[in-house]
Amino acid sequence: MNKSDLVDAIATSADISKAAAGRALDGALNAIKTALKNGEEVSLVGFGAFTVGERAGRVGRNPQTGAAITIKAAKVPKFRAGKGLKDAVN
Questions:
Q1: Using an 8 Å Cβ cutoff, are 18 and 11 in contact?
Q2: Does 35 share its domain with 10?
Q3: Cα gap 82→87, rounded to integer Å
Q4: How many CA atoms, within 13 angstroms, populate the side-chain half-sphere of residue 3?
Q5: Total structural domains in the chain?
Q6: 21 burial class (0-12, 13-18, 19+ CB within 10 angstroms)?
Q7: Which of 31, 48, 56, 35 is nearest to 86 (CA)?
Q8: What's the predicted TM-score (pTM) here?
Q9: Full domain range(s) for residue 17
Q10: What does the record list as coiled-coil region(s) (predicted)?
Q11: SS3 29
Q12: Same domain, 34 and 62
C-alpha cells in the first residue's frame, strides 16, 4: 500500500473527500515529524509508539578503496508496535 492507496482508504472509511483525507494524512505525518524533531515520543494507544534513538559514531570501510572512514553519530526514528497492532497482524 502506498500513500495514495492510504488516502483512498481514509477517504472511504471516514466518508470524506480524497483531498480532505490527503490533507489530514499530511497533517498527521507533519505532527509526528515535528514531535520527533523536538525529542518527544508519539504514542498511539493500541497501534504503537514513535521514538528517537541514538546511533553512535563508528569507523567503517569504503567498499571501493577499503580505506577507513568515520561515520558520524546520528539520531534515528524508531517505531515500536503496540499490542493491538501485533494482535491484528497475527
A1: yes
A2: yes
A3: 9
A4: 8
A5: 2
A6: buried
A7: 48
A8: 0.81
A9: 1-40
A10: none
A11: helix
A12: no
Indicate whether 61 and 29 sit together in one domain.
no
C-alpha cell at 88: 491484528
pLDDT of residue 22: 96
pLDDT bracket for residue 40 (50, 70, 90): very high
Cell numbers representing residue 27 in the block:
497533517
Of 70, 39, 75, 36, nearest to 55 by C-alpha is 75
> H/E element holding 81?
strand 74-81
Asked whether 78 and 52 are in contact (CB, 8 A), the reply is yes
59: part of which helix (H) or strand (E)? strand 58-61
Measured CA to CA, the distance from residue 42 to residue 24 in angstroms comes to 17
Same domain, 68 and 86: yes
